[in-house]
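Teaching assistant here, posting this on the class forum so everyone can see the example we discussed in section. The complex has two components, and the goal was to see what a joint structure prediction looks like when all of them are supplied at once.
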Amino acid sequence: MESTFLVFHVGVYALGVPAEELIEVNRNLRCTQVPGSPKMIRGILNLRGLLMPAVDMGAYLEIADSKCESFSIILKVQENNVALMVDSIGDIVTFNTAELVLPPAHLSGQFQEAIQGAFRLSKGLLIILDTGAILRNAQNPHGSVLATLQPVSAQP
Amino acid sequence: MENHDEILAEFILEAREIIDRLDGDFVRLEENPGDQALVGNIFRGLHTLKGSSGFFSLKRLEKLSHAGESLLGKIRAGQAELDFDKSTRLLEMNDILRSIIEGVETNHVEPEGDDQELIAVLLGVEPGVIKQTDQMITRSAQNEEVPEELSKNEPQSLPEIQMEYSEPSESVTSNAPGQEVVVPVKVNPEVLDKLMNIASEMVLARNRLLPFSQQSTDKLFTSAVRSIDLLTLELQERMMKMRMQPIYHIWDKFPRLVRDVSADCGKKVRLLQEGSETELDRILLDSIRDPLIHLIRNSIDHSIETPEIRLEKGKSELAYLVLRAAHQNGTVIVEVIDDGAGVDYERVRQRAISRGLISVEKAHSLNHKELIDLIFLPGFSTRDTITNLSGRGVGMDVVKNNIENIGGSIEITSIPNEGTHVRLKIPLTLAILPTLFVRCAEEVFLIPQNRILELVRFAPNQPNNGIEDFYGTPTFRLRDKLIPLLFLNEQLNLAASPLTPKQKLFIAVLNFNGTLFGLVVEEVLNIQDIVIKPLGELLRDMSNFAGATIMGNGEVALILDIDGIARKSGLVERLQANPIRQEELYVPAVEEMISVLLFEIPGLNKIALPLDSIDHIIKLDPSQIQQNGNREVVYFNEQLMDLVRLDHYVSGGSKDSHLHHARAPVLTCHYRDRLFGLVVKQVTDIIEVPAKLHELSTPQRGLNGCIIYNDQVINVLDLEEVLVMHNIQEESDEYPKVIDLYLPN
């Protein structure tokens, strides 16, 4: 079965997300920081009246040499809108899903979940991300201020 | 098949509407058994139901509604009378109809059930006879004769029209022959919300466009922008209107509720609804339904007495429960009023003590208003036994929370044996919220305006900054009250901007569950109406923020969740460990104003009396004055009125004897059930003055003190002292050494 993917780059990596989840690609959207939010969430941005969190893909995937500033990929994943902040945008490519190489079993926890697999390119690999995992991880604050603070229960 | 499903779904929707309306109609009919229009309405509703259910071959529904219809037919023909039993049966039938419809909706088939007995009762025959008549019913249902005047205009759309006009009589007229009927369109609420959202975005987009048009010299462009501007405005207004729904959409269910609850409690209650056409935002309407149901149940169960007790108390057997709604100053006031026993203050007090909510000494020092506040505490109930209806402890605190969550407030007043008056204040709409824009650490945040009690400016780097340390919590002294402070930048973990030595910061005084606290921000910008948007799934755990909005420039600003911040800061726990005495009830800094009557007496030309202490102002002819011993009296309103010449009793008054022979204004007032007339020289004005009284350093005879009004001193008469002096009958005008407050009755 053939599937199409949008290719983008974070640091030195070529990454892909399913094209059917793509709404649009945008440049230089202003986003507003949310104090106390997980590190990987850059803030909230406004796309024609729709508010959505902007995920810093460099921070999410722990890729050191990334800026992830100017480009944002707007996706709609399971009824949730999310913007992925990336370094640059590539092509739309089509692969046969049978060619997908599953990730190696020794990847550490978060990455095991984040990556669906990879396709072989003429040069290197195209890593296909599990977009659902982005949502799950964004909800589960990783190293954020919130994790250290116990929510104080309401008055008895 | 799909087509069939669609029609079925439409039928279910329609049937629900009919059934819901029937609930109210039956109860109304019970109250006015003679209302032929109402009987006609119910009859038609049941007939529509029966006809449609035949079409979908929903046998159970058909038989039951047929039975109900026959009974109604008899009632209309005068062959049967609607009594309590019959209407209970009819309501029972309605409940079963509803459950059948619900069953059909979920399973697409009728739920099983045996209605033989009920049908028999409705038809007024023995259950055994039913079996034979069954076939007859189905057959006759097809060509049932619908009486002339009803069959003429009976389109399927009838119930919907009635939704639009709640008055049953109107629905009849709107279907008069020859008049065109516009069928209202049903729209999914989600579509409405989406449209609303787009409309507000349109407004924002327009805002961005406007500056360009102001700079542009292109006439065509500016005129195009102007028409966009106008259209957007109208679009927004219409969208807002569309979301508004009259409150009768939720009230319609209450007659039935009141009937059932009062029947359960063995009480007789009549429900009156006033202002049912008052419009409210749809979402708000939904969120006040449950609180209102709770309040109505409370009134019937707790406040209203049983008929026997009411008769003993000399009240009418039938208790009244009034629901009233009205617009007032951009809010909607919804009131629930009963004429029952009211809140049993003593019991509230005992309960509060026995549940350990307050100490015994404190309980006895509480006044009625403070006792009512106790009712709102979680887990409070004056009922010893749990009833089906109320008294389970999920009570008024939930009601209060629900109302406050939508930005409203609740107020209860109660007079023993006269009843309870609950007043809900609801904002008109939820979607648009006035907020205060503040700046903190270079970012703009929004505080909902209705949470702010006041704003205070202070200089943190000055020696007398008003900040005191209270067990490690910075507090601010505001008019003899200590208010704990939270610094917004610390709460949000933002680096504070460096302060210049003289820079001033702002404290927004906020209320969290009755505890006042101050939120310190760097700058207060402006107040603006905003459209609230949720932060979305990914950021739902952000307890500091209640939502976000898009500002005019397209940027996103976050709305602070005051409760979340207060809760997370641990402020409440710290305060509980080391309580700061805050005033029980917070009085905002607004000066209280009273109306006073301004008048002159000989020698003094600015004397005032609170307006509510005066009954009448009359002109008195000297010939009407009669003598009673050495008193002057006047026969007024079939009573003897003592005349008091104020100039005799007030310092600074000069006895002006020639006035005794002129027509003079007299202010009549009651004091200890006796009528007095205060003779003055001239009445000048009624003015609003601050209620705060300046005490006079040396007490002046006959004066309470003075009020400063427009830089003028206005003397406030001490009515009590004057009347006491008058009654002591001092012959001399010397100030009495001792004033005995004894007055002969």
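For the discussion questions: Chain A has one domain: 2-142. Residues 2-142 of chain A form a domain with the OB fold (Dihydrolipoamide Acetyltransferase, E2P) fold (CATH 2.40.50.180). Think about how each of these relates to the inputs above.
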